[in-house]
Amino acid sequence: MSRLIAIIASCLVLFSCTSKPVKKSENPGSLYVEGVNLMKAKKYDKAINKFSDVRDNFPFDPMALISTVKLGDAYFERKTYDLALMTYEDFFKAHPEDENIPYVLLRIGECYEKLSLSLDRDQAYTLKAIERYTYLMNRYPSSSYAANAEESIKRLNQKLADRELYIGEFYYRTNQYNAAITRLEYLLKKYPHTVGFDKALYFIAMSYKALGDPVKSNEYIEKLQKEYPHSKLNKSSNSRGVRQTLKSSKKEFPPIDQSSTKRREIDLRPQIIKASTKGETVRVTPDKQQAGQTDKDKSGLGFIDRTKRIDIVSDTMEGFDKEKMVVFKGSVVARQDDLYIFSDVVETFLNEESNEISKAYAKGSVKIVKQDRTATAQEAFFDNIKREIILKGDVVVFQGQDKITGNVITYYINEDKVVVEGDPEKRARAILTPKPKNQ
User: Fold this and answer.
1) Helix/strand/coil percent split, the chain, to 5
2) What are residue 408's phi and psi, to 5 degrees?
3) 427 and 405 fall within a common domain
4) CA max distance for the chain
5) Residues 227 and 327 in one domain
6) C-alpha angle with apex 230: 229 to 232, nearest 5 degrees?
7) How would residue 134 be classed by pLDDT, with cut points 50, 70 and 90?
8) Helix axes 44-57, 63-77, angle to 10 degrees
9) Does any domain span residue 386?
10) Residue 248 pLDDT class (50, 70, 90 cuts)
11) Which range, of 63-67, 137-141, 393-397, averages the lowest pLDDT?
12) Do 192 and 159 touch, CB atoms closer than 8 A?
């Protein structure tokens, strides 16, 4: 019996030694300072441990927020951009009004930019970077980080332009002249101030010449000569020098990766939302003469232009012929000129007779960005038959300094009417900033 007691006692002593909690000899402030010093010494793994200690062990301490941001910085400096992105995104979602959000948005954009693939690969990360930079500029225009975002957008637009030129040139060299013209004319319209514009003009001219259309070919040759008089390609289409220039610059093209980039021309009608509203449930009917001015009038909440195509990029795409449905899943990005729609999933339903889109449903972290207008919601439903757009779930719409929030925002296209609804626990709200009298 005495021996049993001794064994139990020894076990208690053993477990009391091994299970003794770690002594918190360091406070959050000292852990943070140590982490910063370790980052300066480029000891990122150790710095990550320090910042993680503050975040995990002192979650309610004021130092936890800035430590989380620095944790993302440590991952970024260690070049583990996926982990940095996850850290920054989680911070943005958890603390959307924190003073560090402009910096965090810039970092999110930089992470997507670092993860962006080469020109022959899917550019979804590039589009996401532009979306984050654009949101930063629109939401925090006076922030010092907005200028950085603007420069980054120019750089990424150049990359997208380079991709269009790359693909257009590929089509030209493989004798797919109509495809080359379509791609390169899109480049001229979408990216007019980018490097390589002269090359696009030349390949369009040569494509029209190959198709037996000398009028259009000469039109682009003249434009090339006028706008780029010093370009090496600025010679007549029959010039030996031009042919030699192209021959010397000819290169082998790797296959364009479209396995993870799914595109479909989709008309996500209806066209616009126009209103400014406040109160729990408000109906607004704007002037009918202004209802269709989507290009000239940038007031209201207008996003979609039904006259233009929409390109959709996603991780996967599934088509269901029987149901006449196409489903895009995983980091979905829909782009229409300067309009971007982001969500986790987009489901499109086709009209059986016309094979056009009759309905589209976006769900999961829905975000719509166009110029100075940004809308976020949990779901967005576009009904082309009923002529309705419905945004649901924690809806927030920004235009400049104006802000509208509600649980559901419904726009009735034919009636040109907007309804903003709150929920029983949270009323709808509008913050509208008057314009100067001279505007």
Assistant:
1) 45, 20, 35
2) -140, 130
3) yes
4) 109
5) no
6) 110
7) very high
8) 150
9) yes
10) very low
11) 393-397
12) no
- Quick one: tokens of 291? 């209802």
Q: Which two tokens stand for residue 340?
A: 């971007």
Given pLDDT bands bounded at 50, 70 and 90, which one contains residue 235? low
Could you tell me which residues are beta bridge partners of residue 319?
326
Output the average pLDDT for the chain.
76
pLDDT in tens, 59-106: 999 899 999 999 999 999 999 999 999 999 999 999 999 999 999 999
For the chain, the residue count is 439
Q: Which residues of 234-256 are buried (b: 16+ CB within 10 A; e: fewer)?
A: bbebeeeebeebbeeeeeeeeeb
Backbone Cα Rg of the chain: 28
197-210 and 214-227 helices, crossing angle to 10°: 160
Q: Say if residues 300 and 292 touch (Cβ distance below 8 Å).
A: no
- Domain with 243, as residue range(s), is 159-249
Residue 6 falls within a domain, yes or no? no
Higher-confidence position of 436 and 116 = 116
- Lowest-pLDDT range of 63-72, 181-190, 328-337: 328-337
CA distance 308 to 222: 28
238 inside domain: yes
**Residue ending a domain, choose from 225, 249, 273:** 249
Distance CA 152, CA 130 (A): 8
Q: Please check whether residue 343 is in contact with residue 315, taking contact to mean a CB–CB distance below 8 angstroms.
A: no
Complete DSSP assignment for 383-402: ETTTTEEEEEEEEEEEETTE
Number of domains in the chain: 3
Q: Are residues 99 and 229 in the same domain?
A: no
Residue 348 counted as domain residue: yes
pLDDT at 438: 54
**Region of residue 370 (phi > 0: left; psi between -120 and 50: alpha; otherwise: beta):** beta
Shared domain check, 150 and 38: yes
Separation of first and last alpha carbons in the chain: 95
Which pair of structure tokens corresponds to residue 330? 């995983």
Task: Please indicate, yes or no, whether residues 43 and 147 belong to a single structural domain of this protein.
Answer: yes
If asked whether residues 170 and 146 sit together in one domain, one would say: no
Residue 269: HSE in the Cβ half-sphere, 13 Å Cα cutoff: 16
| Co-location of 288 and 427 in the same domain | yes
- pLDDT, average across residues 248-257: 50
DSSP state of 181: H
Do 318 and 415 sit in the same domain of this protein?
yes
**What DSSP letter does each residue of 67-88 carry, written as one string?**
HHHHHHHHHHHTT-HHHHHHHH
Backbone angles phi, psi at 69, to 5 degrees: -60, -45
Q: What is the DSSP string of 279-343?
A: SSEEEE---GGGTT-TTT---TT----TTS--EEE-SEEEEETTTTEEEEEEEEEEEETTEEEEE
The SS3 call for residue 326 is strand
Q: Where are the beta strands (DSSP E) in 169-303?
A: 281-284
